[in-house]
Amino acid sequence: MVEPNLTDESFDTAIMDETMATEVLGPEGGRPRPKQWRLYWRRLRKRPAALVGTVVFCFFLFLAVFGPWVAPYDYQKQDAKLRLDSPTVSHPFGTDQFGRDIFSRIVVGTRNIFLIGGLGTLIAVVIGTAVGLLAGYIGGMGDEVMMRLLDVLLSFPSLLLAMVLLAAAGPSSRNVVLVVALLYIPMVGRVVRSMVLDLKNKEFVEAARVRGEKRSYILFREILPNSLPPLLVEASMRFSYSIFLVASLGYLGLGVQPPSPDWGLQINEARNFFQIAPWVLLFPACVIAVLVIATSLMSDGLRQVMLPGGGRN
Amino acid sequence: MVRFILRRLGFMVLTVILASIIIFWATAVLPGDVATMVLGRYATEEAKTELRHELGLDKPVPEQYANWLGDYVRGDWGASPSMDTVVRPVVFERLRNSMMLALVAFAMYVPLGIFLGLLAALRKNTWADNLISVGSLAFIGLPEFVSGTFLIAIFSIQLGWFPSQSAIDPNASFLESFPLLILPAVTVALTSLAYVVRMTRSSTVDVLQMDYVRTANLKGLPPRRVLFVHVLRNSLLPTITVVAIGIGWLIGGLIITESLFSYPGIGRLLLFAIQRRDMVLIQATALLIVIIYVVANLLADVLYAALNPRIRYT
Amino acid sequence: MAIAIQGQVPSDGAAKAPRPVFEIEGLHIDYTTEFGVLHAARNVSLSVHEHESFGLVGESGSGKSTLAMGSIRYLASNGKVSDGSVRLNGVELLGLSPKQLRELWGSSIGVVYQSPLSALNPSIVIGKQLAEVARQHLGMDASAAKARVVEMLTKVAMPDPEAVMKRYPHQLSGGMLQRCVIAMALMTNPSLLVMDEPTTALDVTTQAVVLDLVAELKREFDSAILYITHDLGVVTKICDRVGVMYAGEFMEQAGLRELFSRPLHPYTLDLLGCVPRFDPTPEKRSLVTIPGAIPRVDELPPGCIFAPRCEFVQPACTEARPPLVEVAPEHHSACRRWPVVPVPSEYLREATEAVRASGSEARDVDILVEAKDTQVHFKAPRGVIRAVDGVDLKVAVGQTLGVVGESGSGKTTVARAIIGLTPATGGDITLRGKSLPRSTGKRPRSTLREIQMVFQNPDASLNPTRTVGDAIMRPLSLLAGVDHDEAKRRAQDLLRSVSLPVSYFDRLPHELSGGEKQRVAIARAFAAEPEFILCDEPISSLDVSVQGSLMNLLMQLQVEKHTSYLFISHDLSAVQHLADAIAVVYLGHVMEIGDATKVLAPPFHPYTEALLSAVPLPDPDVKQKPIRLGGSVPSAMYVPAGCRFHPRCPRFLGDLCANEEPPWREGEGDHRIYCHIPLDHLTHLQAETLVFGEGDSPGENA
Q1: Which of A190, C91, C149, C327 has an alpha carbon within 20 to 30 A of A254's alpha carbon?
Q2: Same domain, C584 and C450
Q3: If you measure CA to CA, which chain B residue comes closest to A297?
Q4: Could B211 and C109 be called an inter-chain contact, meaning their C-beta atoms sit closer than 8 Å?
Q5: Is residue C263 one of the residues assigned to a domain?
Q6: Is there a contact between C82 and A2 (Cβ–Cβ < 8 Å)?
Q7: Residue C90: which CATH number?
Q8: Chains touching C by CB (3 or more pairs below 8 Å)
Q9: pLDDT tens per residue across all 313 residues of chain A
C-alpha cells in the first residue's frame, strides 16, 4: 500500500525540511565528487530565477564594456530639431529635451554605473577584507576598537551619510566612488570578520598553529581560501546595492553631474517633462529596474549555490 | 539585563557624538562661502566679514563645534539663512509630516511583510513561495524613484486615482491629507516590505527546522497552536530587530520619495538645505535624523533583549 | 473521532501473555534526494510488547532513526513510506488522516530524542510546555494540569519541581532537561515510547542516572519502549530484545542475552568484537576489524548486503538477499549460514592478536613529557575560571597515557596547554626534562616537530580547500625540511601506512568519509615523525566499527614508530583499551593516576568508582554496583573548597572533606589517589563495585 505523506493543512508545520542525502547516507558516505565549479553550475541550472538574473547581468556587463561601440549615436550629440521625439525606428527610445538619443545615453550610462558602482564596491571589498581579516585574527583590544569604529559608520542611514559627505566633498564621479567605498567597507569588514572568527577556531587552523605556521600563512593560505564563497556572495550583493546608491544619488543631483549619462541623473532631468514625454523618464527607470532585479537575483543565486546551507531558502 | 541596556545606551551616545562631529566637519568644509550665499555676490567685503563674525565663523573649528553642540542640546538650532527663519519650528513641522508618512508606510509594510514572509516559509518551494521570494528579491534593490515613477505613471497619470504631487497643507488634519499620502507611502513601503518579507521568511524557515517544533508537533498539538505559540514566538524575534533596522532604509527612502512627490517632509528639507549650502539647516536636520535612527535601533535592541529569555535571564 | 489507544493492563491480573503493542511489518521507507531515490529502510519488521523494551542498534546509515520516525509517520517532505504496515494497539497507522495522527502522537506515543536543550522551546517556561500535553490530551484545566506536571516531575526524580516549572530550558543542565523531556513524553501514559539516542549527549555519570530512571519507569508505566542507540553497552541496561540494523535492513533480532552470548549473524559477531572489553591482560590486543566500509544505500550489492565484508561468505550469499527468518525460538537472523557463526569468546581470541606488551610491566622507561602543577585560569567578568587547577601528568617513552574525564573536567584544556594552543597560566611543561615555552608560537621548530596532535572533529581537521596529499606533505616540508619530490613519496607511504589507497592523494576532504578523514589527520600528525602525539577524543564521533579499526591503527603505529600518546577521552572503555597508564580528571584536578591495571582495580578514588559503575558495558552478565552521583558538575568558577569532589562524593566523610584538601595516597608502583580515605579502607569497601561474569574483577587475573 503506497501511502502519501502528510498533506498540507493550511498552517501545518509538521512538514519538515528535506532530509539531505548526507543525513541518510551518514558520515561514511564519502566518494569522489566532480570538481567544485561543475557542482555550482549544476545547482545554478536548477534555479531558473537565478539563471535568468545571471544572464541578464552578463548582458549588461557586455554593454558596459562595449557600450560606446554599440550605441548608434554619440550620447552627447544634441539635435534641436528632434527634441522630445517619441520613439521611432531611428531612435528606438526616443530623444530627450536636448535632442540626444536616449537609447545611446542609456547604453553608455551602463558603463558609467558599472565603473562607479563596481569600482566603489571593489575598493570596499579589498579594504573591508583586509580590515576584517586583521580584526578577526588579532582579536582582543584591536578587534574591539576596529569594530566599534565600523559600527558607528554602520549606524547611520547610508543615504544620509552619502548625502552629507558628498555635500562636503562636492559632487563628482570620483567622490561618489569614494563615498560608496567608505559606506560599504564596514559591511564587508563585518562579514569577513565573522568568517574569520568562525574559522579561527576550526581544528585545521589549530593544526596549522601546532605545526608552527606563520600568522600570514594561516591568514592567507588557510583562512582566506575558505572565506571566498561568502565573500563573493557579499561582493555581488554590495554591487547590487551600489547601483541603487549611485542611481539614487544621481537622481538627487548629488552624484555624478551632467552631461554624464548617469541613469539617475537622466530621471532627475526628465521629471519636468513627464506629462508630455514620459518615455524620457520611463526608459531609464525600466533599465535601472531590470539591472537591479537581475543583480539581486544573481547574487541570491550565488548565495544558494555556493554556501553550504544551499538547500534552504 | 540592566547592564546590557546601559552599555547600549552608552554606545548610542557615543555614536550620536561621532555623528555630530562628522556632520559638523562636513558642513564646515562646505565649498562655497556662506556669507556670499546669504548677502549675494555684490555685498561689500565688510558686510560679509561682519556676517561671518555674527555667525561665529571666524572662530577656530573645534570651538565652533563645541558652541554648536551646546546650543543644539539646549534646543537652540539657530536661524537658517536661506529660509530666513528660526530653524527649530520648521524642522519639527517637517518632521511631523515625515512621521505621518512613515507611520502610514509602516502600517502597510510591517503586517503585510510578516504575513507574506510567514506564508513563504510555510509553503516553502511551492509556487507561492517562489513568487514571494523572487518578488521580494526584485523589490529589495529597486530605488524608490523608480518604483515611485512607475506608480505615478500608472495610478496618477493613467488612472488618475491619486495626484502626482503631494504637497500637503500644513494646516490640514491627518485625515484630510490622507489621500495625498497614499502613493508616497506605498513607494516607501515597497522596499522595506521586501526586506521584512525576506527576514521573516528566513528566520521562520530556521525555526521550522528546530527540534522543538518537532517536539511540539509530536505532542499532538493542533497546527495552529504549534505555529502561533511555538514558532512565531521565536521566529518573530529577529524580525523585530530587522524592522527597527529597516527604519534606516525607511529614512533613506523617505528622502527620495519626498523629493519625487514634492512632499514637505524632513528628507526634502535636508535636500533643500544641501542644495542651498545652508549649513545651519543641514546640521540641525541631519543630526536629528541620526538621533531618531539611533534611538530606534536602541529600542529594538532593548525590545529584543526583553523578549528573549536567554538574554533576560543570564 | 477518538481512537481507543491507551494501553490498559487487563484488570483481571497479568496472567495473560503480553500482547504486541507496536507492530511493524514489511516496511519500506524511501527518500527522494539529489542522488536519486534512496531506499533508507527495506522490508523491516519488528514487534514490541507492552512493558517490553526493544533496542534498535545500528551504525550510521543503518536506517534506525529513519525507521523509528518513519514508523510513526513523522518524515521529512522528501520521505515516504512506500510499502508495509505499522500497527499500534491493532490500529493501522498508515491509513490515518493528519488529524488522527496528531491525536495519536500526543496521547499514545511519546518521543524523546538526543538533545534535550533543542527539544524544548527556549522561549517558554518548562512548566507550560509540559502542561500543554495534559491540557491537550488529558482534558485537564490549568490547575489540574499543573498538578499533573508536578506529579510527573517528581516521578522523574526532579529536585524541587515547583521551581523547575518556572525556569527556561537554558537555565537547567542536560541531565535535568532530559528528565523533563521524559516526563513530558510519559505524561499521557503512552502505549509506545520512542527514544532516539536519548543519552548520547550526556556525560557517563548523568547517563547512568537517566538509564536507571528509564528502567524504573519501564516497570511503572505500561509503555512499550523502542530504544534506538549505537551503543551496545547502553542496550544491556534497559533492553529486553535487540534488533541489529545494517544499511537499511535487519540483520538479526533476539533476546538480549541470546544476542550477546550466541549471536547468529556475522555482523553482530563482528560488532561485539569491535567494542573494547574491560580486560586488562598482560598484552594489548587488537580489536576486530570489519574490512571494507558500510555501503551506501544507493550502492548495495545484489545478494546479502553484508557479504562483501563477511568472512563466512560463500557464493550462494552473493546471489540472493536472504530474508530475516526465525532460526531459533524468538531469534531471527538474516544470514543463511547462521549455524557457522562461532561463539563470541572463541572468535574474539582468534580474530584478534596481541599487538604489544602492556606498559604496566615496563619499569625503567624514561619520561618523555611531563606536566607539573599545570594551571590554566581564565579571567571572566565575574571571577576566575579555573579550568585546569594543578594537574601533574607523566608520559613515558613509547607508551600511552589515557586521560579520562567528563564535561568540565578540563581534560581538553590540559591537552591544549601541553601543546601550547591555550597557554598555561601556571606550572611547567617539559619535554625530556627541558621546559617548554607555554605558547605554540614561541616554541622552536624542533620542538614542534616532536609534539603533534590529532583533533576531535574529523570534518574540521582538514582544510576543505586542500587536497589530502597537500595536507600530509605540508608538515614534511615545513617541519622536516624535506624537498618536494621526497615529500610526495613519503606522503604516499604515509597514506599506505594508514590503510588508505594512494589514489586518495588528489582527493579533497569532502570526498572522504569520516573515518578516512581521521586517518588522513593521523597520517599528517605522523608525517614529521614526532615522538609524542596528543589525541584529543579522536574517535568519539565515529561509528563503532570505525572506532575499532582506528584504535588498531593507533596501536600499530605506536609499535612501529615507538611514539608516545596522550589519549584523551570521556570513553573509559577506549582509554583502558589503549592506555598503559590512566589519569582520571575532575574539575581541573587529577583524582587518580597510575598504571592502567592498578587504576581499574580497587582501591579506586570515589569518582573513578562512580565512573566504573556508570560505564555501560556490553555484557549482560557484568554486575556493576549502582554508585550514582547527585547534582551536576559545578562551574569551574566556583570550585568547591576542600576536596572539590566533596559535594557529589558518595563516600563523603564530613567536615574533613569539605574544608581540607586531600592528600595524595600512594599505592603500588606509581598509583596515587587524591582522597582523605586511606587506601586499605577503600579497597575493603570497593571490592564489589565491578564484577564480571563469574565474579572476577578486572586486574585479578593480571
Answers
A1: A190
A2: yes
A3: B137
A4: no
A5: no
A6: yes
A7: 3.40.50.300
A8: A, B
A9: 223 333 334 445 554 555 666 666 665 556 677 677 777 787 788 788 888 888 999 999 888 888 777 777 777 777 766 677 777 777 777 777 777 788 888 888 888 888 898 999 999 999 999 999 888 888 888 888 888 888 877 777 888 888 888 887 778 888 899 999 999 999 899 889 988 988 988 999 999 999 999 888 998 888 889 888 889 888 988 998 898 888 888 888 887 777 777 788 788 877 777 777 777 888 888 888 888 888 888 888 888 887 755 433 3
Residues of C in contact with A212 (CB under 8 A): 440, 443, 445, 448, 478-479
Q: Which domain holds residue C232?
A: 20-239
How many CB pairs below 8 Å do chains B and C form together? 70
C123:B217 CB<8 A: no
Provide the ipTM.
Answer: 0.83
Task: Dig out the grid coordinates for B126 from the structure.
Answer: 511551492
Q: Do C440 and A6 touch (CB under 8 A)?
A: no
Q: Are β-strands B79-80 and B85-86 bridged in parallel, bridged antiparallel, or unpaired? A: antiparallel
Integer-rounded Cα Rg, in Å, for chain B is 24
Pairing status of strand C283-285 against strand C690-691: unpaired
Neighbours of A90 (CB within 10 A): 12
Which residues on chain B are in Cβ contact (under 8 Å) with C134?
none
| Residue C593 located in a structural domain | yes
Contacts of B212 in chain A (CB under 8 A): none
C330 lies in the same domain as C399: no
Residues 213-252 of A with CB under 8 A from B: 240-241, 243-244, 247-248, 251-252
User: CA of C170: which chain B residue's CA is closest?
Assistant: B310
Residues 145-204 of A with CB under 8 A from B: 148, 151-152, 155-161, 163-165, 167-170
Establish if A288 touches chain B: CB-CB under 8 angstroms: yes
CATH (domain of A293): 1.10.3720.10
State the pTM of this model. Answer: 0.85
Please state, in angstroms and rounded to a whole number, the distance separating the CA atoms of residues A9 and B105: 32
For residue B286 the three cell numbers come to 541631519
Residue A313 C-alpha cell reads as 531558502
Residues of C in contact with B211 (CB under 8 A): 113, 115, 118-119
Lookup: cell for C61 = 546509515
d(CA A202, CA B228): 38
- How many CB contacts within 8 angstroms connect chain A with chain B? 169
Q: Rounded to an integer, what distance in angstroms lies between the CA atom of residue C120 and that of residue B214?
A: 10
Measure the CA angle with vertex C410, ends C407 and C414; round to 5°.
145
Q: Is residue C8 part of a domain?
A: no
Flag if C60 and A16 touch (Cβ within 8 Å). no
Helix, strand, coil percentages for chain C (3-state, nearest 5) = 35, 25, 40
